[in-house]
Amino acid sequence: MDFSTDVVIVGAGGGGAVLGLALAKKGIRTVLLEQRPSPPQGLRGEILQPNGQHVLNELGLLTQLPDDAIHPVRYFNFRRVGGQRLCTVDYHQLPPPYNRALVMWPNVVHQTILQALDSANPGGLWYGIRFKSLLKQNACVMGVEAEKEGKTLRIGAKLVVGADGPFSNVRDALGIPTSLHVYKEGYLIAMLKCREPLDESQYFVGKRTILGIFPAAGNQLYVFYMIRSGTYEHVKSQGLRALQLKWTTIYPEMEHTFDSLEDWKQTTFLGTGRVRAQSWVRDGAVLIGDAAHGMNPHASQGRMQAMVDGITLAEVVESCMEKDDWSASALRRFEVSRRAQVTMLQRLADEEVFFWNTGNPLLAYVRDRVFMTLDSNRRLRYQVLTATAGLRETSPFGWKDRIQAAGFLPDPRANHIPFNQQLV
């Protein structure tokens, strides 16, 4: 072996970085291998949901986030294309202190975690390293073989963690059967200078149309605009003005803000997919984040769930260290504790894709009817909010709730907020 450690994490994204920091705080020797040459710098929209805020607080980082990079948002308004409000979700329904969403500047959360990781585990994050294969003894994973600048490195470890995204090479090397679904739609993301006052988030739905507007710090805002996957270059070929006019048609009040889109460098494309790995564990190996369970961004929980994975797995790793047991059966406690919530969120996101992205007038009618019911039904609205906030493991809707949400059955408990429901 060229190097030995306790844990090797392949991928230093949201889940891998959180796990690396949590293990460093426990004194567990850890090396993170990141294929990129440096920390991420590009445009990405980021909303820190309450469960993500809780993770950062556990790590002692929530108060370390720079104030000038945060815009707290209380209200999320769902509206028809053109303007009519359908429903308003109020984060103040949630118990404090995590009763708001935080719209963040791009990569600020990740960079804050990486800075803390560098302090807690100096030299433990290796950039420009490409994962090649797993080292095994019989069926048990014993480390990894990686490559840096053409040189092969053999790194021994008690545990290898695949945190390398939806197209995970670690998952493939483990031979874990996986269902990978790429959605027909993705998102064009833009960051613009806000020229009209906006403190509340706006989310427009229409016929095969979604436009999300999220206020950010520094009088900026994010725009999330649904487009067909593979059409980003075609949209760009039509010119900036064509895109501005489409957005203005959807949300006329923000015309001057949309005019601040002056360069395609203000935009990027976010593809969407779903990953369902049959198992997340093997002897000496674990998958976390998108490598195990990627989901559609409608759930508002993809990055948050990776962060929760990191915190949860750190506790399991500490137990495995004490017992010196790295078997799949010992590691499965992580999967058992996490899979229920992840599966629920994936299903919820797929339901939202089905109804929100639709071009079918009947489905759109049902969608809008549900939104309007939620607006007047505090109980159902709270249940949906707790799922979006990452605070529940069970589905927000039972069969009876679905009938009531569609407006076909009265709800005598509409004003009851069920605080006694299982939250996480």
Word description of this protein:
The chain has three domains: 3-45 and 106-181 and 274-348, FAD/NAD(P)-binding domain; 74-101 and 184-270, 2-Layer Sandwich (D-Amino Acid Oxidase, Chain A, domain 2); 358-424, no CATH class. The longest helix is centred in the last third of the chain and has 29 residues, at 328-356. The chain has helices spanning 14-25, 50-58, 108-120, 169-174, 232-237, 240-250, 255-258, 290-293, 302-323, 328-356, 361-376, 378-388, 399-405; strands at 3-10, 30-34, 46-48, 70-73, 75-80, 85-90, 101-104, 125-127, 130-137, 140-148, 151-162, 178-182, 185-193, 201-206, 209-216, 220-228, 267-270, 273-277, 281-282, 285-287. It is an alpha+beta fold and 424 residues long.
Our count of domains comes out at 3
Number of strands: 20
Mean pLDDT across residues = 95
Termini separation = 41 Å
CATH architecture of the largest domain: 3-Layer(bba) Sandwich
Classify the helix fraction into a percent range. 25-40%
Query: Which secondary-structure class do the elements indicate?
Result: alpha+beta
- The DSSP helix count reads 13
**Rg over C-alpha atoms, rounded to the nearest angstrom:** 22 Å
